[in-house]
Each structure stands twice: as structure tokens, then as C-alpha cells.
Design goal:
By secondary structure, the chain is of the alpha+beta class. Helices cover 39% and strands 25% of the residues.
Amino acid sequence: MKNVVLFVISFLGIMAGGCAAYLFSREKPALPPVFNPASNPYSNGVFANGILESDQTSGENMSVYPEVSGTVREIFVREGQLVKRGTRLLLIDPSIQMATAQQQQAQAAAALSMLEELKAQPRAENLHVFEAQLEAARASVKTAKDTMEKQRMAFELNPRSVSKDALDGAINAAATAQANLEVAQKQYDLTKAGAWTFDIKNQENQYKALTKSYAASLALLSKYTLTAPRDGVVLSINATVGSFVSPQGAYDQYTQGPVPVMALGSPQASLNVRCYVDEILVSKLPSPDRMKAQMSIRGTDVKVPLVYVRVQPFISPKISLSDEKPERVDLRVLPVIFRIENTKDLNIYPGQLVDVYIGE
């Protein structure tokens, strides 16, 4: 009986193994691909990685950096907004620079007042004072001379009536009064002549210097307000109210490095594709008059024809488009720019990576 049970169990195990082998050996039909991979539409086409950017005559998307450092007080635009040249984008706290400009404005105003005071000399009130002092000095001279003459006449009539010391004192007093008169006369003439030309010239230079310092402070103050350098659309804003920005940009918490405060580009209807052609494939590129290309949007079956725009005639080191850091190996690429003729119904954005085939 025991052997029969073992035989039955062995038979069932063999049957289960056979069923399992049959089931696992069956080939399941492959799932259809979500999208067809990019294919070369040209017989001798050259493949290149591409990145979407704004349509412009030179350069790439415009990165906006401030020329001063400070804390962001206000942001006037939003991402995706169309802006005109001169539109205010962002305000950096200008309180310290504003106080400096106001101080220099006050200094320039004080220098101007001093200059006008020098040019307005002599002041009539001052001149009247020195005129009175001059008249008083003349009166003192007359009094001293009269006293001296009386002493001299008395001494000549009777030497014993006036001492020699008294006569000498009267003579010295008359001489002192005459000297005081000459000083008063010169002081009057000096006051009447007005300010010295060299003092006026020096004050003019000080006023000009302070005025230029104030103008420089105003120019620097204007740098605290970032404005759009040209018409375009705001692609990204990498600063927030209260964050610190500098000429190096703003700190990005995700990349943990500096990034532009803002990026501006052309409207969504005008986009270019910047292709990076490997240096070993540059010799296979057709001439510009026969060059055309096709762009494949990754993750879709969409293929878009491109129109040749220009070649940036400088072979530069290859970069990783994901983080824009130089590769370890010194590979170099030639940037070739194409234009997308019609972006209607295309869900694409600047900065997006695409696959491009270049042919003729």
C-alpha cells in the first residue's frame, strides 16, 4: 500500500512539472511600442543631439543677471509673461543706496549754496560794517593827530608845560591810529572786491565732483531695478521675494549652485533647435545651401522638418545637456542651428532635448 501512494505522488509531480514546462514555454506576444524610435530619414544622414531655444539672431536664451547684490523686494512679472523692452522685472532692496544718493544730493546742494554765496560777495551788510569801521578809524586818526598837535604846540611854547614822554606818547598814538586806518581801508577794499577767483574755481570743482558723485549714485540706484533688455517672454524666474541675489545670480536649492535670476526668450511660436554635431561627423555635413534636417520629439512619433539657419563656427567642448558640466573625455562638437517653421499644435518648450538627423 505504501508503494502505491509513492507511485501516485510521483505521477502527480511529473504531471505538474510537465504542465508547468508547457505553460512557461509558451511565447507571449510582444507589447506594441509606445512610440517608434527615431530613424534616419536620409541615406547618409548625420545624427545629433539637439536642444530647443529661442529664435534669435545670435546666442542662446538670454540670461538676466543683476549688476548689484541684495535682497529681492518685489517681482513684477510671472513666468510665461510677454514683456516689452524696458519692462520692470525685479526690484532689489535699494534702501542703503538710496540713502547714499540722498546724502550726496544734500552735499551737492550745500556745495552749490557755498558757490552762490562766493559769487554773491561782497554782501552789502558786511560792506556796511567795514565802512563803519573805516569811518571810526578815520575819526581815531583825526583825534590822535589833534592831540599830538596840541601836545607839540604846548611843548614848543613852554617845554616845562608838557613832558617829553607825553609828547612821544601822543606821536605814537597818532602813528598807531594811522596804521589802524590803513588796515581798515585794506579790509574794506578786500571785502568790496568779493570772493577770490581761486576760491570760486575751487568751489565750482567741488560742486561738479559732488554732482557727478550724485549722478553716479543715481545710476547705481537704477541698477537695483532689473528691466527687460529686449522684447520677449519670461521663460523662468529663479528668485523669490526675500532671497539674496548677486552678479553671480541666485542660489538654486536643487542644483546647489548659482543660476541666472531670470531667463528670457522669444515667444513660443518662434523656436530654434541647437544641434551639437560630433567633431568626427563634421566632415560629413552637407553644404549650407543643401542642408536640411528632421527633428524627432522624444517619447512621441512626431517628426518635424527643420530649416537651416546658421552654423556657430567654433567647435567647443561637448557638454552634458542635463547639467551643463564638461565631460571627462575631451570630445568636441560643432553647434548648428535650425529653425522650426511651424510650432502650431506642437507641445514643446525651450530647454527640451530632441533627436535630429541632418541630411541633404
